[in-house]
Specification:
47% of the residues lie in helices and 9% in strands. With 254 residues, the protein is α/β, with parallel strands linked by helices.
Length: 254
């Protein structure tokens, strides 16, 4: 009886906690022992390492100091960055992926020093915000998101790292997922407007994915993302040269 009561409470907590609403992969039946085990494991992981500092801890120790003429760049972000095969889309480039699926800007801010600054890049490409709007780690106002952006930029600037702020990508509802229910197109627009103005005011580079990936309805072009959120191969193919141009622009800035 106690186990059943605990399972019911845990199930209610999972359903009402937005941190787990981001899960879009196939899961076991919700009342199965395996599902309960997975839920407990996720809870434990978040309890002991909320920003997931352990994700790249070992990998970071194996990153050598950059060569004298190396234009090292770190890509910081969420699942859109995490799923980006940088070696494939930027062959021969010293670009390092530090994306983590599902993350929000407060989590990225906490790991910005070990996952970006400690690697001594010349530039950082930050792609975030969509999970903040969705409330993955709790309710977030636009001002809260903007403050986290600014803090990451200030940390980078203080350490001589050029900043490339990527616009939040649009979403679409053309498939089975109604992505706009959690990711307001209006808030995406507002956040991008702020990002563009912030970059202009502070000398950072603004990478406008949004303007090149929207259709005539203001949504993400259907052919660029199968689920309405994450770029597919065609999406990354479109984004790669835009990112490269922005990186080169940032590196030329004094």
């Amino acid at each position: 009886m106690r186990l059943r009561y605990f399972a019911a409470l845990l199930g209610l907590f999972i359903l009402t906690t937005s941190a787990f609403a981001q899960a879009q992969q196939a899961t076991p039946p919700p009342d199965s022992a395996e599902a309960l085990k997975q839920q407990l494991n996720r809870l434990q992981q978040r309890a002991v390492d909320w920003p997931q500092l352990s994700r790249y801890k070992d990998a970071n120790t194996k990153v050598p100091a950059p060569a004298k003429d190396e234009d090292r760049v770190v890509f910081m972000g969420d699942s859109i960055t995490d799923g980006w095969k940088l070696a494939e889309y930027f062959p021969g480039k010293p670009y390092i992926n530090r994306g983590i699926s599902g993350q929000t800007t407060p989590q990225m801010l906490i790991r910005f020093r070990p996952d970006v600054i400690a690697l001594k890049p010349k530039a950082v490409v930050i792609l975030a915000g969509t999970n903040d709007i969705a409330g993955n780690t709790g309710p977030m106002t636009l001002e809260m998101i903007q403050n986290n952006y600014a803090s990451m930029a200030e940390l980078a600037k203080a350490n001589g790292i050029k900043v490339v702020f990527s616009s939040v990508l649009p979403i679409h509802d053309y498939g089975k997922n109604k992505v706009s229910e959690r990711r307001s197109p209006e808030n995406i627009l507002k956040l991008n407007e702020w990002l563009k103005a912030y970059c202009k005011a502070h000398g950072h580079t603004y990478l406008d994915y949004f303007g090149k990936t929207t259709d005539d309805k203001g949504m993400l072009k259907a052919e660029l993302a199968n689920d309405g959120l994450h770029p597919n191969a065609e999406g990354y193919k479109l984004m790669a040269p835009m990112a490269e141009a922005a990186i080169q622009q940032a590196l030329k800035k004094r």
